[in-house]
């Protein structure tokens, strides 16, 4: 006779990309998985933490293949839990930072299935950190905002206008397609020297970093072909990265040359 199935779901944050940046608790949950449902941004080597016999199912969004991928993922999660027992829902970064983790839990709770959450290291702090950018630093920035470039209606969040008026570090997710609009918001306030960095696939071997100011970032992003998935970091802290020092020393030198010319 089959053992009695006890349905449960653990929502696990997989970390920002580097597979070593998952938490120990996340690995332990994977060790005990009957089914793993994973997204597109998940490093596949993480699946090796799950038992060989566990079912591993990709639920990333594939254009055109599913009418409503989120709804289907929720349904799958419940069905697998009822059929197999312990489902680990592996999500990029932290499940509650723009990850729709809360929505998934709300759905699962309707079926009386018990759930756990294992937080993850969010790309919002880890990706800047890996590029040497501290999101806060004494005397430079005393807060940081994490803002979406793509709200549920597809628009850049209006919060960016508020954040741009403050001294806060701004971390934008899902914003690469809105770069012109983002730069425009800062330009409109005369903040053309504001440092900005775009980091694609941070903490992974494919990491790409482009940095500059509001004056040159559009050109740089185009010529260096930086694209999604990427994080945009705006604020004086970007200058603090030892890895980006050369970029900003260059800018300083250019300014000095221009003012010497004008004397
Ligand atoms: N829950 C996740 C964020 C999900 S939203 C977290 O806490 O990190 C997905 C967006 O996050 C991507 O479009 C991109 O803007 C950003 N992102 C996630 N991982 C990233 C990485 N390794 N490098 C750059 N951006 C990343």
TrEMBL record:
GO molecular function: uroporphyrin-III C-methyltransferase activity
Pathway(s) annotated for this protein in UniProt: Porphyrin-containing compound metabolism; siroheme biosynthesis; precorrin-2 from uroporphyrinogen III: step 1/1
PROSITE patterns, per database record: SUMT_1 (PS00839)
Domain of life: Bacteria
Domain Tetrapyrrole methylase stretches: 8-214
Record SUPFAM superfamilies: Tetrapyrrole methylase
Record carries keyword S-adenosyl-L-methionine: yes
Listed EC numbers: 2.1.1.107
A Pfam family it matches: TP_methylase
Signal peptide: none
UniProt KW keywords: Methyltransferase, Porphyrin biosynthesis, S-adenosyl-L-methionine, Transferase
Record GO biological process: methylation
InterPro entries: 4pyrrol_Mease, 4pyrrol_Methylase_sf, 4pyrrole_Mease_sub1, 4pyrrole_Mease_sub2, CobA/CysG_C, Siro_Cobalamin_biosynth, Uropor_MeTrfase_CS
Sequence similarity: Belongs to the precorrin methyltransferase family.
NCBIfam families per the UniProt record, alphabetical: cobA_cysG_Cterm, PRK06136.1
Protein name (record): uroporphyrinogen-III C-methyltransferase
Organism for this UniProt entry: Cyclobacterium jeungdonense
Top-level taxonomy: Bacteria, Pseudomonadati, Bacteroidota, Cytophagia, Cytophagales
Gene, per the UniProt record: cobA
């Amino acid at each position: 006779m089959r053992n009695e199935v006890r349905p449960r779901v653990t929502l696990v944050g997989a970390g920002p990309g580097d597979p070593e940046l998952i938490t120990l608790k996340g690995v332990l949950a994977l060790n005990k998985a009957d089914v793993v449902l994973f997204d597109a941004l998940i490093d596949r080597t993480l699946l090796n933490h799950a038992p060989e016999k566990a079912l591993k199912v990709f639920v990333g969004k594939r254009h055109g293949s599913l009418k409503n991928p989120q709804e289907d993922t929720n349904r799958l999660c419940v069905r697998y839990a009822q059929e197999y027992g312990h489902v680990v829902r592996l999500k990029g970064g932290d499940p509650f930072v723009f990850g729709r983790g809360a929505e998934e839990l709300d759905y699962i709770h309707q079926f009386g299935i018990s759930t756990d959450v294992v937080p993850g290291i969010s790309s919002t702090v880890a990706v800047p950190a890996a590029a040497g950018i501290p999101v806060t630093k004494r005397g430079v920035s005393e807060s940081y905002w994490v803002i979406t470039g793509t709200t549920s209606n597809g628009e850049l969040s209006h919060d960016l206008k508020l954040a741009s008026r403050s001294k806060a570090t701004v971390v934008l997710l899902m914003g690469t397609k809105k770069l012109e609009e983002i730069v425009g918001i800062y330009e409109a306030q005369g903040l053309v020297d504001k440092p900005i960095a775009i980091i694609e696939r941070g903490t992974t071997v494919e990491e790409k970093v482009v940095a500059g100011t509001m004056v040159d970032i559009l050109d740089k992003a185009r010529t260096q072909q930086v694209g999604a998935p990427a994080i945009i970091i705006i604020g004086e802290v970007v200058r603090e990265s030892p890895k980006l020092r050369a970029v900003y020393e260059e800018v300083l030198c250019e300014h000095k040359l221009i003012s010497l010319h004008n004397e």
